[in-house]
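Example record

One chain of 389 residues, shown exactly as stored in the release files.
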Amino acid sequence: MKTAAANVRSTSSLGERDTPAAGALPSSASPVRVLILSRHDYRTKRKASAHFLAKALVEQGHEVQFFSIGYSWLSRLRSDSRAFLDERANHWETVDGVQAYLWRGVWHATRMPLMGERFGYLYDMWARSRCDALDEAASRADVIIVESGIAPVLIPRVRAAAPNARLIYRAADLLSTAGVHPRVQEILEQSREAIDLVVVVAQAMLPHFDDFRAPKIVLRHGVDRDQICAPTESPYPRGKNIVSVGAMLFDPKPVCLAAEHLSDWTFHLIGVPSSTFPDNVVQHPEMPFSSTLPYIRHADIGLAAYQKEARSEYLAESSLKLLQFGAIGLPAVCPQFAVEQGSLRFGYDPEYPETIIGALERAANAPRSISHVPSWSEVAGNLIEAARA
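Predicted structure tokens for this chain:
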């Protein structure tokens, strides 16, 4: 069984396909042109795994274009975090060596309240909307990385524009867990023959791609070790502090219960949905990762209060914030389904949210212990090596 590196586990030989590869990449010594399709924009404050991956690819000498999709006037009605880029949309801009583009269309397909699962055909219509910049970027790419989210609806389009590119589907989340419209999942499955490589961030995600003939590998998230280990000033004025970062599947109920019970602790929630909490909960707006990092480094406990959703168990391996907590040795509290064996994580039962109190007390008494997490440079290198295979 061929793997790209020690931390990459392949479920099929990277050299085996029933049909020939779409195209060959330049030699291992040569840089490649990479196009990343994502709902995220490289320039936003909140950083997802695609941001770190793009930066690492550029640092390794590759040309990276980061193409942000699913944005229109509808986005501004929904307080989209990319709204500050509205006047800079539909133009390329280079940041950190990454070429960033926000496609602002006349409209885009999105899930709307009261619409249920109807109108899935709008995703097909939107995927055919005119965007010369997308077609041109795809046509010149050696590698196209389609991120999970709504980007899979564009697979037929970019494959048609780039028949010889290596097309990678990178599943940072399962679409059903992330709440994406079912039509996107249907298009992904209908497009599976166009995909050259499936990359998942957790072993538990692999069975969901059994029907895909493309090779499949596991590449877990990484960390920027230089950044995450750099000295920082504590943002906390005093006392004992718990930090939670990010809005995905955030469950406020156990946080409220814990804050009421542990009144001598301060809970810092960064970038979570605004809600009503006890007085010892501080709600911080979304902020750049460099500003978030001191809150993580100087906290006493990290918190990942995930809701229990169908097929969410893969978060034990894929949760970027839990990996970041582990990389600096911060004890973490999370639902039992997100506890990974051997990690410094303390679980509670989300169906009985009061059990979070015991988990926090156990974490408070745990010594710090650093977990090994690969660097984003390793992840990027392994991804390109797998694409070349």
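Notes: Residues 376-388 form the longest helix (13 residues).
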